[in-house]
Amino acid sequence: MSLMLLDTASLYFRAFFGVPDSLRAPSGMPVNAVRGLLDTIAWLATTHGPDRMVACWDDDWRPAFRVEAIPSYKAHRVAQEVPGTTGIEEVPEALRVQVPVIADLLAALGIARVGVPGYEADDVIGTLTTLAVEQRTGPVDIVTGDRDLFQLVDDAAGVRVLYPARGIRDPDVVNEKRLAERYGVASGQAYADMATLRGDPSDGLPGVPGVGEKTAAKLLAQYGTLAEILAARDTGDKGLTTTQRRRLQEADAYLRVAPVVVQVARDVPLPAFDPAVPTAPADPEALEALTEQWGLRSSVGRVRTAFGWA
Fold first, then answer.
1. Fewer CB atoms inside 10 A, N or C side of the chain?
2. DSSP 174-213
3. Mean pLDDT computed over 178-198
4. Is a pLDDT exceeding 90 seen at residue 214?
5. Residues 189-199: what's their mean pLDDT?
6. How many other CB atoms sit within 10 Å of the CB of residue 9?
7. What is the band of 1 on the pLDDT scale with cuts at 50, 70, 90?
8. Alpha-carbon distance 41 to 79, whole Å?
9. Under 8 Å between Cβ of 112 and 51
10. Pick from 209, 217, 226, 218: which is nearest to 263 by CA?
């Protein structure tokens, strides 16, 4: 019973910037992100034929628990500060207006859309992946343009990432072999540890100054885990240079909290939902109305064909 998990925002952002904005509804509103996502779903269903598919959703793009740990987390993407929240995300207006249309279409099609208040889609994906591994209901394909989710790769459990670096039709298939070839780490957990050490400016994570990807991978090959690297630092292990030990010590405050930010949650309280790929539209009348309103006949038709409805 194969499971495909979509990092929905990652995919519709990619569609928005990759599909011409000349694609418009009869009203004149851009629908490039909508059409791009529908075409992506159709291609994935046709090519991979998953039994189950879940559109994982960012109910909270910048969760408070991550901001409390590292205040700079995604701070550069805050468009507007709102008291009592972690801020409103900067999103192009032409994309923002398409997101509700995407949600409506997923509902009408019958594709499960799952988000949880206080968590990102990454956390939903982490939880669903963990459940699939524990219950042996894989394999699992995670479709995302976000390298953070490489931490979930697990060959033994049948978990891999389809990373559309060259486009959704020719993705990098990220498994443990690919992690070793590209990043010099042996597992998904090692990737998370490397990402913690390296940092990620696009997410506002500083990392350990002076420790880049190659040095982080080398330290992990030497010691195995971030915890063992820090133990070596604290015991004065001779395998660390004086400079490395000093840099790790100076970054101690960051390293104590960074794993909470970098690692996806695996125990999110999920709502009830049906992940099965739909055998018919959940709401045929709504789907027809949305198709007509937004000028989506060809894209919706491709999804219908991919799901075997046409």
1. C
2. E-HHHHHHHHS-SSHHHHHHHHHHH-BGGGTB---TT--H
3. 97
4. yes
5. 98
6. 26
7. confident
8. 30
9. no
10. 226
| Type of residue numbered 301 | G
Report the run of H or E that residue 227 belongs to, with start and end.
Answer: helix 226-235
DSSP 83-130: TTSS-EE---HHHHTTHHHHHHHHHHHT-EEE--TT--HHHHHHHHHH
Q: Is the dihedral of CA 197, 226, 130, 117 positive or negative?
A: negative
Structure tokens at 129: 């992946």
CA 301 – CA 128 distance, rounded (Å) = 29
309 burial via Cβ count (<10 Å: 0-12, 13-18, 19+): middle
Residue 145 CA to residue 14 CA, distance in Å, equals 8
Tell how strand 52-56 and strand 112-114 pair up: parallel
Q: What are phi and psi of 268, to 5 degrees?
A: -70, 140
Phi, psi of 174 (to 5 degrees): -95, 110
* Rounded CA separation 122/76 (Å): 19
Strands 88-89 and 52-56: unpaired
Instruction: Assess whether the previous peptide bond of 278 is cis (omega < 30° from 0).
Output: no
CA-CA distance, 36 to 8, in Å (whole number)? 11
Query: What distance in Å separates the CA atoms of residue 223 and residue 232, rounded to the nearest whole number?
Result: 8
The Cα 12–Cα 225 span in angstroms is 34
Q: Is the whole-model pTM more than 0.70?
A: yes
Tell me which DSSP letter residue 26 carries.
T
Alpha carbons 252 and 257: distance in angstroms, whole number: 9
Which residues touch 20 (CB under 8 Å, ≥6 apart)?
32
pLDDT in tens, 135-168: 999 999 999 999 999 999 999 999 999 999 989 9
Q: Are 118 and 269 in contact (CB under 8 A)?
A: no
